[in-house]
Specification:
It is a single chain. The protein has two domains: 5-77 and 155-246, Alpha-Beta Plaits; 253-421, Alpha-Beta Plaits, CATH 3.30.70. It has 427 residues and is α+β, with helices and mostly antiparallel strands. A hairpin with a 4-residue loop joins strand 10 and strand 11 (147-150). Strands 1, 4, 5, 15 and 16 form a five-stranded antiparallel β-sheet that branches. Strands 2, 3, 12, 13 and 14 form a five-stranded mixed β-sheet that branches. Strands 18-23-17-24 form a four-stranded antiparallel β-sheet. The chain is 17% helix and 32% strand. It starts with a strand and ends in a 12-residue tail after the last strand. The chain contains seven helices and 24 strands. Helix 5 (253-265) packs across helix 7.
Length: 427
């Protein structure tokens, strides 16, 4: 399979959006993101109008894989790991250096795995209890030299509707229902000059991995999608989609050799101090290990015999099957060689649902690992060939994901998410 081309997808809302998550009584609740399966189905509708054979398009080894689209101020939009913490009383990212309402968000993975963190993490500003923040979206904004994290989010509003009795042309008895929809504006997680929260037009950012040798107009079909979600006949779900082929910088052979040499010798290069948006996979792995080796309380000599990497889930992931679900991917599940060992993990659990328009029925419910789950693995130092093999597989994991139903957006991962470097509150 040659998934070597990435399409950047930007979705602008032109009306409220309903992506049904569940129905509670007479209330339809919406997801806060656009699942890859929804976008895939919309593209299939456009392709079908152009006379394409859908089975030939999507039921093949090199079929494109649609990632989830998350609301944000710009790509890439990441998912906070389960190890992220924030103050219970003053939660959230600090919006500027003088923000007294929020005490920031930081990561505790390094302390939990390599440090001496035996009790609950306390807020470094007020020494109060903290709460997990994993699973939420975040983005890095600002220039490459001066940047910070924010967590923009969709705004929900509820729309009341009634059914009309065709016989009388009036409101039918006991048929009032409510739609919870995503509004056309979202919170920027920033303040204006007067200290008031800023809002912006709701924009979702996602991606599609495909085969560069596939001579099909996927960009044209993506741009041809003008509706997503449910209740279209009621004016909901109007969108405008921008799509373009993204220039992805592949790691060169020299960069792979240099990175493998640094990791094998246990002397990773100092990570550049710039926005995480500009960090490639090799940069993230080197920066993570440089942070590990710099820990003051790293006393165990055993830790220094390995180099480490994390696998962070960017969407819910289905491993195993309904009868025997897997809640901790081992090295074999990731296609890694035997010397690689799993060290530590922190996972949330969820269920993957969905609706098949082709079947006219709900898809089977599958147990899954929740987005934000993070797992730590270690590789013995001293074998440069082994290190290069592991680095190559890490590149494959980020491109192809893990688990089942990856073409619908499930099972996407990031290796060594940059937020693990945020061991202190960013001012």
């Amino acid at each position: 399979m040659a998934l070597d081309q990435r399409l950047k997808v930007t979705i602008h809302l032109e009306s409220p959006l309903l992506i049904t998550r569940q129905q509670v009584g007479f209330v339809w609740e919406s997801e806060e993101y656009i699942p890859g399966g929804v976008l895939r189905g919309a593209v299939a509708e456009v392709a079908a109008r152009h006379g394409q054979d859908l089975k030939a398009l999507f039921d093949r080894p090199n079929a494109p894989r649609f990632g989830h689209a998350y609301a944000g101020l710009g790509p890439p939009v990441g998912i906070l790991p389960q190890t992220a913490r924030t103050c219970k009383r003053h939660s959230g990212f600090r919006r500027d250096g003088q923000d007294d309402e929020r005490h920031g968000v930081w990561d505790t993975l390094l302390l939990q795995v390599f440090g001496e963190m035996q009790t609950e993490a306390r807020c470094p500003i007020c020494d109060q209890s903290t709460a997990p923040r994993g699973g939420e979206t975040y983005v890095a904004i600002g220039s490459s030299e001066e940047w910070r994290y924010v967590s923009p989010g969709a705004i929900f509003r509820r729309i009341g509707r009634t059914a009309v009795a065709r016989e009388r042309g009036a409101v039918a008895d006991r048929l009032l229902y409510t739609l919870e929809v995503i509004a056309e504006v979202m919170e920027r997680d920033e303040l204006d000059d007067y200290g008031r929260p800023l809002r912006a037009a709701t924009v979702f950012h996602g991606f599609v991995w495909g085969d560069s040798a596939d001579n099909l107009p996927w960009v044209k079909w993506l741009r041809g999608v003008n509706h997503l979600g449910g209740a279209r006949s009621r004016g909901l779900g109007q969108v405008r989609i921008e799509a373009e082929v993204e220039k992805t910088s592949l790691a060169t052979e020299d960069e792979m050799i240099q990175a493998a040499k640094h990791l094998t010798e246990g002397k990773p290069a100092t990570a550049p101090d710039h926005s995480p948006n500009g960090m490639g996979l090799l940069d993230r792995i080197l920066a993570f290990n440089q942070k590990v080796y710099a820990l003051e309380n790293l006393k165990k000599e055993e830790h220094l015999k390995f180099w480490y990497f994390t696998v962070d889930l960017q969407s819910d992931t289905i491993l195993g099957d309904v009868r025997r679900p897997c809640y901790w991917p081992g090295p074999a599940d990731l296609g890694l060689p035997e010397p690689v060992e799993k060290v530590w993990g922190l996972a949330g659990y969820s269920q993957v649902r969905g609706w098949s328009a082709a079947w006219g029925l709900p898809k089977p419910i599958a147990p899954s690992l929740a987005a934000g789950s993070t797992f730590v693995y270690r590789v013995p130092r001293g074998d440069e060939d082994l290190t290069r093999q592991v680095l190559g597989q890490c590149i494959t994991l980020e491109r192809e994901g893990i688990g089942q139903r990856r073409d619908e957006g499930w099972g996407w991962v990031q290796i060594c998410t940059p937020f693990h470097l945020e061991t202190e509150v960013r001012r």
